[in-house]
């Protein structure tokens, strides 16, 4: 009887762990569109800024350098927002 009770507790722990993973996946799916919109918003801002500074610069960086720089900046800007969203979703789970 004790072995069955122990096995049942272990089984419930596994179920709870897997349920937590499932909930996290569902929550991430809910915030994915928001993250995508934020990313697209930053892309538009960068494009607008590039258009504004391109005529002024004489020795401008290459397109590849600008894109790489933009990606790094966007990742830095989004990182904190994404972490906060994930944290809030996990707390609300």
Please give a structural write-up:
- The mean pLDDT is 80.
- This protein is mainly alpha-helical and 93 residues long.
- The protein is built from 2 helices and no strands.
- 88% of the residues lie in helices and 0% in strands.
Instruction: Give the overall pLDDT as a whole number.
Output: 80
Q: Which descriptor suits the 3D outline? A: rod-shaped
Describe the sheet with the most strands: none
Supply the number of helical segments: 2
Helical proportion, percent range? over 70%
Structural class designation: mainly alpha
Strand percent estimate: under 5%
Q: Would you identify the regions where 5 or more consecutive residues have pLDDT less than 50?
A: none
- The end-to-end span amounts to 34 Å
Instruction: Sketch the topology as an H/E string, one letter per element.
Output: HH
Task: List how many beta strands DSSP finds.
Answer: 0
Question: Nearest-angstrom radius of gyration?
Answer: 23 Å
Write the layout of secondary structure elements.
Blueprint: H1 2-53, H2 63-92
Helix pairs in contact: 1-2
Primary descriptors:
0% strand; 88% helix; single chain
Summarize the structure.
This protein has 93 residues and is mostly helical.
């Amino acid at each position: 009887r004790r072995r069955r009770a122990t096995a049942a507790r272990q089984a419930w722990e596994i179920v709870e762990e897997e349920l937590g993973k499932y909930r996290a996946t569902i929550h991430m799916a809910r915030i994915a569109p928001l993250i995508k919109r934020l990313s697209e918003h930053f892309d538009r801002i960068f494009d607008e800024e590039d258009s504004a500074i391109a005529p002024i610069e004489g020795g401008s960086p290459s397109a590849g350098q600008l894109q790489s720089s933009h990606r790094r900046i966007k990742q830095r800007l989004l990182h904190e927002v994404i972490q906060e969203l994930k944290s809030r979703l996990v707390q609300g789970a």
